[in-house]
Amino acid sequence: MTSNIARDISTLGFLSRSTTLRTMGHSQRAIDSALRAGTLLRPVRSWVATPHAERDAVIALLHGGVLTGASALGTLGVWRGLDRSIHIQVPPNNPGRISRCPVPLTTFVPPRHLTTGVVKHWGEQRFSTRALDWRASAVDALTVFAHGIDLEQFVAAVDSALYTRALRPSELSALFHALPARFQGALPLINGRSESGTESIARLRLAAVARSIEIQVPVGRHRIDILLDGWLAIEIDSEEWHSGSRVGDLRKSTWLTGRGFRVEHYDYQQVMNEWPSVERAIREALAKPQLPPLR
Question: Of all helices (H) and strands (E), which one includes residue 280?
């Protein structure tokens, strides 16, 4: 495989229609040569890939569709909620047959979480802006994601899509026009500054707890995830938080405490599954206000 093909297929998520590579200037002869050499793989007819391709995306192709919903959001680096199914958008005329992959699926990159089966969504993609061959656009994916979830998870996903720039602010209008009626009043709740879905959900729940709430507040060289009433700093450890973050978090907390802030840490498990105890602790802390901290 020439370095140019390697470069270009990497920009396509390591998985592409052959026709897409040809429109980028690569001849069918060069593509066939890479296939014979084994540097390109043929997961399904008319498609090529490298072992860096997402396994779930290859599964979507075998079903005759593309990744959408929570699955597409996950490959975009967007918070996908609690859904671990493989969501596939298939065209209405798809016969429903599953192709056989001549390459072992273990060749490709496994999903970060164990998957719980395939869910098909029949219909055409409505918004192809910035979509890859194997993945629906962020607007399409969020539209599918909105069905069957609650308001908190939807807002968290949109916040994350804006924060990661998978979704542009200019695309919000198209998104909300395509949403179920129950989400039509959700636009004022969107805040693209939250760094994780867990943080977004905590923000929504704390809005009714404090007199004031600020998001991603700069203090010196640090940022406070959520600042309540100007002095109570709430730090949210996302699902991806790991032990290597602990030292930096402790130093940040020590620095903020020295400036007069009270700092509370809560993790993904506490926010998602133990919220009543978290809210009770925060309400008790807010009942004992401190002097205004140094900014």
Answer: helix 275-286
Q: Which amino acid is at 193?
A: R
CA proximity to 200, closest of 245, 155, 254, 133: 155
Give the CA diameter of the chain.
73
Helix (H) or strand (E) holding 267: strand 262-267
Predicted confidence at residue 97, as pLDDT, reads 86
User: What is the distance between the alpha carbons of residues 291 and 35, in angstroms, rounded to a whole number?
Assistant: 68
Domain boundaries, the chain: 54-150, 200-286
Q: Is the pLDDT of residue 294 over 70?
A: no
> Distance (Å, rounded) from C-alpha 44 to C-alpha 146?
30
Residue 34's DSSP bridge partners are none
Residue 265 to residue 188: CA distance in whole angstroms: 27
Q: Could you tell me the two tokens for 294?
A: 């140094």
Helix (H, G, I), strand (E, B) or coil at 263: strand
- Cα dihedral 112/115/121/124 (nearest 10): 30
What is the tens place of the pLDDT at every residue in 3-39?
699 999 999 999 999 999 999 999 999 999 999 999 9
φ, ψ at 141 (rounded to 5°): -65, -45
Query: Would you state the pLDDT for residue 240?
Result: 60
| Dihedral, CA of residue 124, residue 61, residue 176 and residue 181, to nearest 10 | 70
Q: In this prediction, what percent of the chain has a pLDDT beyond 90?
A: 79
- Can you give the pLDDT at residue 33? 96
CA 136 to chain CA mean position, Å:
13
Percent of the chain surpassing pLDDT 70: 94
- pTM score, whole prediction: 0.90
List, in sequence order, every residue forming a beta bridge with 49; answer none if it has no partner: 15, 41
CATH homologous superfamily for the domain 200-286: VSR Endonuclease (3.40.960.10)
> Distance of CA 33 to CAs 18, 26, 67, Å?
13, 11, 29
